[in-house]
Amino acid sequence: MRRLTKKKALTLVKELDAFPKVPEGYVESTASGGTVSLIAFTFMAVLAFLEFFVYRHTWMKYEYEVDRDFSSKLRINVDITVAMRCQYIGADVLDLAETMVASDGLQYEPVNFELPPQQRIWHMTLLHIQERLRVEHALQDVIFKAAIKGAPPAQTKSEDSTASLSACRIHGHLYVNKVAGNFHITVGKSIPHPRGHAHLAALVAHDSYNFSHRIDHLSFGEPLPGIISPLDGTEKIAADSNHMFQYFITIVPTKLNTYKVSAETHQYSVTERERVINHAAGSHGVSGIFMKYDISSLMVKVTEQHMPLWQFLVRLCGIIGGIFSTTGMIHGLVGFLVDVVCCRFQMGIYKPDDLTAQESSETLLPAENYTE
Predict the structure, then answer these.
(1) Which residue in 75, 332, 333, 360 is a FRET match for 147, CA 20 to 30 A apart?
(2) Where is the Endoplasmic reticulum vesicle transporter C-terminal domain (predicted)?
C-alpha cells in the first residue's frame, strides 16, 4: 500500500511538471536555429555587461527637513584679495543682533593683485567649472560624488618688498551665531561701539580707495573636498574709487553622505549687486565689499545611493529570459512563413501556365455560343 501511495504521489508530481523534457529523438538542430542562438547569446552578453555598469552607477537622493539646530556656531571660510593695502582696510562680521564678531581668525597678507601664471591657470579652470555648473546642474552630483576640486596652488611669497605690494589677501575663518549677519570689508580698521561698531576711515584719502577684489574661496561650515561654492573664482574690477559691491547670500544647511565623505556642511545661493557711491546723485552708502547672509530654516540631506543587488539580479534574469523568448518566437514565426510560401509554390497554385490557360478558355466561351 505504501508503495502504491508513493507511486501515485510521484505520478501526480510528474503530471504537475511545467518543464517537461523533450526526447532527444524529437529534437532537430538546424543552421538557422544555430545562427539565431548565436545572435541571441551575443545580445545577452552585451546587455548583461551594460547592466553591470548600470548596477555600479550611483545617484544622489535629495531629502528636505526642518533644521532644528540653532545653538551651534557657523563657520565662515574666507580667502579674498582686495586691491588695497592691508593697513587701509578691515574685515569683520555684524550679526542681526548687532553683535560684532571678533576677526581674530583672519590674517592680512600683503600680496600683488595680479596672479602668477600657475595660479592664473587654476583661476581660469575654476571659472570654467563655474560656467558649466550654471548650465549643467547635474554636474553638482558629480562634484558631490568625486572630489574633483583639488587644493589651489599655494601662493608663493613675493620677493618684492612689503612697500611695493599694493594688495591685501584676507584669509582664514570666523565662527558666528546661526543668525543673519553681514560680513564686510571696508576702509579702516573696525573698533567696538555701543551701538554696533565703526571703522576708522577718516585717515584714508578717498583717492586711494580701490575695492577691486577676487574671491578665491568663500564657504560656510566645515570645508569639504568636492564642493565648489558659487562665489569661488569671482573677480570684480571697480570702475570708480567709491564703489560698493553687495552679495546677498542664502545659506542652506546640508548633510552630505556619500561613499567618500560623510559630514555636515552648508551650501548657498547668491545674488550680486554693485553701484558707484555718489551722494550728489542720490546714491548713498559706504564704499566696500558687503556680504549679507541669511540662513534657511530647511536642511537638505544628500545621500549617495545605488541599485540593490536583488534588483540587479531580477533585471538580469529579465534580460536573459526576454531575449531568449523573443528570439525563439521570431525564429518560429519566420520559419512558419518560409514554410508556407515554399509549400504554396510547390503545390503549383501560382504556376504561370495554368493562369494563361484559364484566361484563354474564358475568352473562347462567348464565341462558341454566338456560333450556335
Answers:
(1) 75
(2) 162-330
Rg for the chain (alpha carbons), in Å? 40
Alpha-carbon separation of residue 271 from 8, 217, 301, 309 (angstroms): 83, 16, 24, 44
DSSP string, 260-315: S-EEEEEEEEEEEEEEE-BGGGTB----EEEEEEEE-SEEEEEEEEE--HHHHHHH
pTM value?
A: 0.69
Residue 60 in this model has a pLDDT that exceeds 80: yes
**pLDDT digits over 127-164, tens only?**
888 888 877 766 666 666 664 344 555 555 555 556 57
Confidence at residue 294, expressed as pLDDT on a 0 to 100 scale = 93
Question: If DSSP codes are grouped into helix, strand and coil, which group holds residue 205?
Answer: coil
pLDDT, mean of residues 329-358:
66
Q: Within 13 Å, how many C-alpha atoms sit on residue 23's CB side?
A: 2
Identify whether 284 is part of a domain. yes
Q: Find how far residue 163's CA is from the centre of its chain.
A: 46
Nearest residue to 82 via CA among 106, 100, 117, 118? 106
- pLDDT value at 354 more than 70: no
How many domains does the chain contain in total?
1
33 falls within a domain: no
What is the number of residues in the chain? 372
Rounded to 5 degrees, what are φ and ψ at 265? -140, -165
Using DSSP, state whether 234 is helix, strand or coil: strand
Distances (CA, A) of 208 to 110, 201, 204, 281, 289: 16, 11, 7, 21, 15
- Per the structure, the complete domain to which residue 255 belongs is given by 68-296
